Structure formats: C-alpha cells, structure tokens
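Structure (tokenized):
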C-alpha cells in the first residue's frame, strides 16, 4: 500500500535509520508516558494515523514509540496483517514531490473495518499523530517562493525536511492526539433508511472518521503554531475596516486626524511576534533559568493540554515578578503550545527590552487611558483582532505586581474588553486558565520592602535593566508554575444567569434577564448592560479564587509565616523545625481534603509521624521506647529542615547561632522583616482557617466549643476578608471548617464528641495549647488591623455620628501607633499605614459601613455583632484619641 518507487516503506525505514541518531524528538503532550500508553490501549491493536504518508515522519514516530517501550511500525493497516500496531495515512505521497498525493484512505479504512475481526470486537485504537519539523507560525506576508521552498505546515518532501532538520539542529516535535475507538459499522448500517446501500454507509463512516482525524490534526497544529501572523499594516487595515471603527471615525470631529491617530496607536500598541526571537529566547532562558533557579516545576498542567486544542485560551496569572510573563511563555513553549500575546505595561517599552518583548509577543497598554477615547477604542479593537483571529492572550488582572504577596483586587478593564469580544462572537468555548507563581525568592523583594516602607517605585529603564542582568548570576531557589482549574466562558455564563433567575422572585422581571445560553443572546446586545458587568465581576472574582486554589507554598513562605508568628527574636532550632513541618502538613492536608490544588514546594515523608513524635516528648503518659522507635524513620524531616533553613540563611532572613554544641538557635533579621511579610502573604489564605479556629480557642476561656461557633467565625471572616482570601466559592465555609477540625482531631489538638458537634481542647499534653497559640498568631496581624479600624469607627460614631473614609484611616493609624507604643499591639504602625486602606475596602464590601450624606459613613451594627469580642474591640477602643 505505502510504496515509494515500488519499494515498501519498511525498507526505506531501514535505509533512513542512521538519521535517527542525529534527531532529537520532543514529545507532546508531556503527560504521555509509558504508563498512559499501556493504560489507554490496554492490549488493543493500535493504528497510528498520519495526515500524509512520509517515511521520515514514520521514522520519527518509531523513535518516539521506542521511548515508550512500544512496538515499532513495520507495516500498513491491512486486515489481519499486523498484531500490535500499524500505519494509516490520510494521504499517500511521493518521496520528492510534496504536492503529489493520492487519497486511498476511504478504501483502506473500509477494508480494515470490514475484513479484520478485531474491528467488530472494538480491539482497535486509532491515534492521530502530528509531526512538526518546525514550529514557526505562518506569516501572512511571507512570499510564495519562500513558502514553496521551505514549507512549515507538514507538507514538505524529503529534501525540505532534511533542510528543516539541519536548520533546527536535529530537533523535531511529535504530538499524539486524542485517540478514537473503533467505529461501529453495523450500528450505522442498521440505523440507515432501508433504500440506502451498505456501501454508501461504509463510505459515509470512513468520511466521518477522516473528518474527525483532520479536525484533530488541525487542533494539534493550532495549539503548537497558533494562527497566521499579520504585520501591523494588515492589522491597521483590519481595524480600520470594522464597522465599529468606521462609525467611531465618522462621529469624530476630525475624521482624517482620528484615522491617523488610530494608526499611530496601533504601532504603539502592537506586538511584532517573531519565531526566530522566540527560539533565541528559549535557548537563552534554558541557560538563564538554570542560573537563576534550581528548578522550574510545572504543576497541574494535565487538564490544560486538552482544552488548549478544544478552544481559545486566555491565560490569567497572578503577578508576582517581572519573571512571570517570561516564565509562563517559556513553560508553554516547552510544553508544545504557542507563546501567547501578552498585555504588558507601557513602562516596559524602553530600549532594548521593549523591542525584544514585542518580538516575543508582548503588546503594550498604557496605565491609564485618561479620557483618551481614540486610544481606548484602538486598544479595544486591537484586543478584539487578536481574539477574533484565535490568538491566545495573556494578561494580569491585578494590573501590577503585588507588593504584599497576596492577590490584589482585580482591575477589570482588560477582562471587560476580552469578555465583550467573546460575547459579540458568542464564543462560548473560550477558556480562562488561572496560573499561580510560587517563588522561593523574588528578585524584587528588596524593592517591594522599600516601597512598603514609603520609598517611591523606581521607573523601569535601560539602567535598571542592565543592573538586573547582574542578578542573573544570583540564585533564587526554585519556582513553581501551577495551573488552576480552567474556566469555560459558556459554563460560567449559564451558571451566572441561572443563579440570577433563582434570586429573582418576580417572574415578569425574570423575563428581562438574558438567556442562560450564550448562543441565544441578541446580536445587538449592549455589553454595558448591568447584567453583563455583573457577569464580568463574577468572572474576575472566580479567576482569583482559582488562582489561590492552585497555590504552591514555597519554603520561604512557610519559613516567613513561622518567623512572623514568633514574637521572640531568638527561636530554638527544634521549635522552628516543628512549626515549619506542622505548617507544611496542614497545607497539604487541607488541599487533599478540600480537593484544592494547593501544595508545598518542599516535600517530606513521615511528617505525621514526626509531629506525633515531637508532641509525645511532652506527653507524660507516652512510653519512651515508642518515641525512640519513631525517631529512627524521620531522616526526610531533617532534609526538609536543612533545605528550609539554608534558604533562610542564604537570603539573610535568619542567622544561625550556637549557644552550646547541641543547642542551635536562629535569630530573625529585623532588616528583612518587610521581605518576610511579602512571602507570608502568598500563603495567608491557606493558613487562615486554621488560624481562625485557633484564635477562637485562645480568645474564649472555656473547655468546650460547638461546631456552629467555629463555622460562624470562619464564615464571618470569609465575608470580611474576601479580598484577603479569595477562597473558592464552590467550597462552603461548613466544609472548610469541618476539614480543619478533622485535621486538628487527627493531631489530637481537639477531642470531638460522637456526633462531631462539640469539641474539647486536649489539655493532657501541655504542648497542644502552645501550638494552638502559635497558629492563632499566623493571623494575628490582620486581626489587630481590622480590630483597630472597627474600634476606631465605633468611637467616631459615638463622638460624631458619622465619619469619612480618610478620617477613619488616619485615625486608625494613630490608634495603632498609640497601642504599639504601650506594647499592646504586636505589629508596628507601618503595618497599619500599608494595609489600612485595603482593610477599609474589605470592610466596606462586607457591609460593615453604611453610606450617609456628603460621602460620610456610619456603622452597620447587625454585621458587627458577634465579632467584637473576637477582634478585641474593647481593648483597642482605649487607644482611640479624641
């Protein structure tokens, strides 16, 4: 069947086999392993389907199969002619002429299904395979001659592929697509009308399978290459020709000047995507990341590999560092996907960085449109162009890098533009992929600390860039790139409007709500509709929740949380070791039980055994023999501590001190305290439920607590701290509370009754209370801050009846300073200066404050009730000055 010059392809494979020594293959998706091959195929015969018959492509496929321990392909898919695997091609071609091909697929496929008994027993698996000799996306302006000589769309002949092999230094990409089971020919025949012939049914089935294979090939290519690229001249023509732009120009005061301004802005904004630059950057960052980081770990990517081929993607990461967009692009390219177009701040458009970023896919956005309607329209149309032409887009909805480690409140301008384009096109199969970056150390943490202390943000420039190059030779530990659960726009739309209907008791008003299916919305929909704006806010909130649900706690974040929860400057090695191991355990257990994707970057075995061993040392009833036996299996714990403390010493967060040969202490570096706050902020949302329950125990001087009380505390602070936590809305406060209490019960901090409704503190071991107090201190700074603001608001209402936002914030800072001077507040006043505005916004959203006339505010007593004791309001009220 597959012969070239009358010679069977197996003989050509033998002839070409020396070439395999010089070929380096990259296999996608990365999740494909030996195990997945055996699990999916489960003893069935495999038919590998190529878009075109090519001996070189088959050689590449055989090399990939060898890596997976699979049988090599030596024959075509003829009935009863193969046992393990065979080859099937949509088109057969010539060794020299790529445009010469014959379509034998229909007849070959029908013969296989009719004449091979395995087809009737569903013993075949069809696996589409795509071979990419280059990953250069097609450019619209590329000449016909160049395209003909060096095609990059898989149609090249033997000589052209050899040239591409030399050009890419022996690198070839192979992608395994979605597998298909054997189609049921008999079922199709029985379901057809009586006057249809069996032959027609067979042909229809073969055509259907060919169409499915071709769709899969197209998806694989789009995921790897992206759409056809256009230069800025073509983009200008596209934008100027849209009906919205024509209408905008016609309604302007000076149409000619407006059109010229639009063209000017397109060149200011537009990316200049260049594949050569992408490849050069890949090689550079292969070197750079190995210098900067000890490892780049990718987590939870398996769920992304499929959707990247099924629909368009908006990548929405958290923003921690300038490394973020470089890291994500690098990871995606290494995973076999096209590098997205990235919305970058205009502050990065300086020589030489701006030009490099443009070629790497960056397009630039001004920090503020400042009422510039022409710029706003041009930018919206540029983003619309990218989305309509299926370019993946990446942007940071926080607007800028987080200086506090926690997620920032979303700025919805860019998301608004994207959702409007999606709605207008009814593109319900668009996915938003949240991404979390977890750094052991961020390059900018010193500058963040200075800015938190009051220093002005330095403007990015060439000098700063050159200074940053010096830092390439520093080491920043490891970094985790964790992918959250994808958010499908069509699904979010349906859920949002179904919930909106349930909340509306008036049936006649319900008819005014938009349809719950995105496909059914009116063509002339006004995207400024309050319902649409509500949807966009819901999506923005959902993205932040999914980012936090995929958080990876770095070793530095764990260490920082422990250090800041200790009020003493000097901490014993054993205490710090236990505290860090305990937090590591709590984070992993919480993620596992809540089905969140949270994890820790440093793994250790036998953590539970170590915790029990440590606690049993202080339990007078425990046998000494059991303690000794437990301690012999905890080598990984010491390795964990060594990694953690060496990072702290390397970055001068702590200093080691020996009092005697066996007594080791660590001293906190006071100069790095604001750096610690940043790292602690990255995992604050994970530690909060444990901290709230511990704080509730320490605040109440009693032995027994009800489940309802713990749930009330967790749920109340979830509402107040919604912008601090961004917990996944699909996980109820009841489940979070129950999970934390279960973990505390397993650790024997609490003892439940038979119905799990009452809990008593386990005081048999005196160390338990000390640990609970430690966990309570992990959230103490926020409790102090929010308590001070609320107590200040109460005193202002008592004295004046109302207050303004600025008056409350300033008065709260003064109150904090007074309490700190009297050693009542543990956190310095700088904490209030930095975070009080953020805290005020959270309290306002939670309904704590009631608007009055002239932009004045008052308190909502019904919301505050029940929390005054928890936040120690009466204590802070003593320091509110008149």
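Design, position by position:
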């Amino acid at each position: 069947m597959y012969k070239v010059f009358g010679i069977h392809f197996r003989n050509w494979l033998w002839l070409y086999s020396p070439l395999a020594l010089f070929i380096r293959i990259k296999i996608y998706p990365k999740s494909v392993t030996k195990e997945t091959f055996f699990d999916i195929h489960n003893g069935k015969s495999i038919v590998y389907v190529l878009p075109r018959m090519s001996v070189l492509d088959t050689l590449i496929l055989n090399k990939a199969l060898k890596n997976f321990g699979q049988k090599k392909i030596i024959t075509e898919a003829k009935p009863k002619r193969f046992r393990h695997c065979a080859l099937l091609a949509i088109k057969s071609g010539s060794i020299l002429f790529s445009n010469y091909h014959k379509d034998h697929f229909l007849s070959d496929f029908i013969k296989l299904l009719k004449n091979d008994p395995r087809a009737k027993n569903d013993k075949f698996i069809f696996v589409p395979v795509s071979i990419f000799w280059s990953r250069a996306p097609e450019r619209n302006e590329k000449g016909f001659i160049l395209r003909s000589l060096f095609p990059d769309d898989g149609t090249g002949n033997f000589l052209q592929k050899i040239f591409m092999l030399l050009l890419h230094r022996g690198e070839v990409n192979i992608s395994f697509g979605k597998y298909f089971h054997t189609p049921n020919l008999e079922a199709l025949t029985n379901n057809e009308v009586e006057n249809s012939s069996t032959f027609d049914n067979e042909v229809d089935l073969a055509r259907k399978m060919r169409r499915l294979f071709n769709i899969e090939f197209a998806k694989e290519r789009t995921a790897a290459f992206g759409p056809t690229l256009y230069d800025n001249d073509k983009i200008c023509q596209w934008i100027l020709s849209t009906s919205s732009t024509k209408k905008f120009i016609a309604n302007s005061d000076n149409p000619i000047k407006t059109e010229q301004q639009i063209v000017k802005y397109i060149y200011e904004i537009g990316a200049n995507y260049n594949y050569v630059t992408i490849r050069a950057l890949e090689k550079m960052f292969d070197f750079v990341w190995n210098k900067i980081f000890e490892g780049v770990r990718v987590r939870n990517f398996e769920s992304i590999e499929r959707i990247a081929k099924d629909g368009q993607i908006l990548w929405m990461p958290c923003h921690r560092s300038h490394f973020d967009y470089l890291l994500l692009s690098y990871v995606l390219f290494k995973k076999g996907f096209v590098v997205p177009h990235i919305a970058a701040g205009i502050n990065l458009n300086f020589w030489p960085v701006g030009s490099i970023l443009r070629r790497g896919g960056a397009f630039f956005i001004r920090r503020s449109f400042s009422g510039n309607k022409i710029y706003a329209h041009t930018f919206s149309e540029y983003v619309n162009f990218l989305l309509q032409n299926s370019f993946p887009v990446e942007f940071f909805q926080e607007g800028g890098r987080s200086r506090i480690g926690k997620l920032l409140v979303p700025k919805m301008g860019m998301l608004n533009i994207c959702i409007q384009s999606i709605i207008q096109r009814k593109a319900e199969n668009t996915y938003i992929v949240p991404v979390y970056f977890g750094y052991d150390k961020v390059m900018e943490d010193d500058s963040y600390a200075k800015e938190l202390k009051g220093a002005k943000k330095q403007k990015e420039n060439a000098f700063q860039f050159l200074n940053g190059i010096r830092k390439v030779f520093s080491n920043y530990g490891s970094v985790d790139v964790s992918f959250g659960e994808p958010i499908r726009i069509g699904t979010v739309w349906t859920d949002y409007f179904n919930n909106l209907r349930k909340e509306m008791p008036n049936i006649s008003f319900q008819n005014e709500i938009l349809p719950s299916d995105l496909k059914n919305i009116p063509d002339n929909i006004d995207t400024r509709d309050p319902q649409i704006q509500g949807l966009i806010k819901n999506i923005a909130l959902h993205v932040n929740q999914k980012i936090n649900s995929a958080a990876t706690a770095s070793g530095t974040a764990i260490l920082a949380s422990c250090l800041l929860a200790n009020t003493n400057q000097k901490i014993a090695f054993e205490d710090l070791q236990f505290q860090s191991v305990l937090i590591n355990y709590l984070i992993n257990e919480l993620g596992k039980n809540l089905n969140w994707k949270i994890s820790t970057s440093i793994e250790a075995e036998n953590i539970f055994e170590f915790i029990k061993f440590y606690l049993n040392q202080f339990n007078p009833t425990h046998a000494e023999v059991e303690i000794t036996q437990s301690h012999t299996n905890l080598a990984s714990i010491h390795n964990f501590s060594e990694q953690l403390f060496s990072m702290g010493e390397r970055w001068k967060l702590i200093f080691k001190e020996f009092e005697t040969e066996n007594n080791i202490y660590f001293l906190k570096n006071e100069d790095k305290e604001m750096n610690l706050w940043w790292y602690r902020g990255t995992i604050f949302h994970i530690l909060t439920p444990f901290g709230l329950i511990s704080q509730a125990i320490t605040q109440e001087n009693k032995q027994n607590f009800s489940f309802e009380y713990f749930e009330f505390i967790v749920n109340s602070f979830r509402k107040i701290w919604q912008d601090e936590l961004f917990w996944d809305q699909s996980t109820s406060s009841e489940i979070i509370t129950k999970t934390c209490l279960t973990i505390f019960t397993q650790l024997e901090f609490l003892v439940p009754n038979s119905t799990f409704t009452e809990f008593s503190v386990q005081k048999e071991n005196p160390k338990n209370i000390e640990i609970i107090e430690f966990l309570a201190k992990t959230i103490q700074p926020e409790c102090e801050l929010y308590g001070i603001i609320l107590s200040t608001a109460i005193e202002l209402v008592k004295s004046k009846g109302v207050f303004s936002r600025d008056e409350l914030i300033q008065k709260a800072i003064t109150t904090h300073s007074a309490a700190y001077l009297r050693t009542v507040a543990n956190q310095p006043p700088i904490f209030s200066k930095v975070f009080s505005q953020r805290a005020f916004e959270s309290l306002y959203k939670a309904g704590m404050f009631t608007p009055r006339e002239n932009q004045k505010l008052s308190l909502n007593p019904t919301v505050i009730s029940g929390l005054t004791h928890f936040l120690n309001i009466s204590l802070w009220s003593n320091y509110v000055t008149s």
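Reviewer-requested clarification: The first helix runs from residue 9 to 16. The chain has four domains: 3-225, 234-487, 551-777, 780-877.
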